[in-house]
Amino acid sequence: MQKKVALTGIKPTGELHLGNYIGAIKPAIELSKAPQFSSIYFIADYHALTALKNGPKMKEYIYKSAATWLALGLDPEQVIFYKQSDIPEIFELSWILSCHTSKGLLNRAHAYKSIRDKNIEAGIDPDTDINMGLYTYPILMTADILLFHSNVIPVGKDQIQHVEIARDIAQSFNSLYGETFTIPEYQIADQSSVLIGVDGRKMSKSYNNTLPIFSDSKTLKNIIFKIKTNSLPPEAPKDPDDSILFSLYKEFSDESQVHKMRERFYKGIAWGDVKKELLATIEDYFRDSRNKYFEYLNDTAYLDSILKTGAQKAREIASKSLKDIKNKIGTV
Ligand code: TRP
Fold this sequence. Notes:
2 domains; two-stranded parallel sheet; binds tryptophan
């Protein structure tokens, strides 16, 4: 059986939260274990560079991302796991693709367009705070995807347009030079994997309502104990399906625990007790990974070696593809 390639990029953005875990990391790690896929996951550091201009922070975030994914179960024997900037072929392809992409296509790309629209609304120069990296971001992402003949791209909804741009570019290149690129498809984690944040809205960094995955006990406790509840007295029956605490508890407990907690809500449970249980449950769930996370972070030489091995494997594939592409455009 010819395996399908599942590929995704992870921007190194500092501390990841439980919403990232449920919505992206967990499904991606599950996918990487499926026998019909060969998985390629990488740290998209040069995409982050469009916004992050701080050397020490960049370095720190790259290590934290690598440590997070490994600690949460990514198996580097099973997944080709590397750092984007270690693969020069991606950037060469990015240039080649730039020369085959109309400027108009990128004018419509949403990340760029939303900043531009805001500038226009504010009555300032439309190009304020827009660097060329942000503008050509979708081309670099297309190069990431096409170089590895990716079939399936697991991403969040905000990335759909980028995958569609990759499809457009691949199709027009193929029709110009003959079959060269595989046409990728996006895959969105199902709706049920959106986690509620501590204020009841979707958990997201931009709402400031997140629970970090590897925070210390005290921080986690502080956030959980601040979650707003209604003012029902402890003995009053409560509706689990209308509770932020219960919806979080559900994600990190097994069926029988969820069932028991549901019953306790119906009978009447003090909010303080629910919070205590939630804290203990989350701590239990991540105990092993948390220990591993800090071990990895203390051993950056190990992380370097994992990323280096991943880059070697990736470059084997990348250099073959690039050779074929250069053959098509006539530079070799
Ligand atoms: N743009 C993606 C994000 O912000 C990260 C990314 C970079 C990516 N290259 C990719 C995702 C290739 C999928 C495939 O989340």
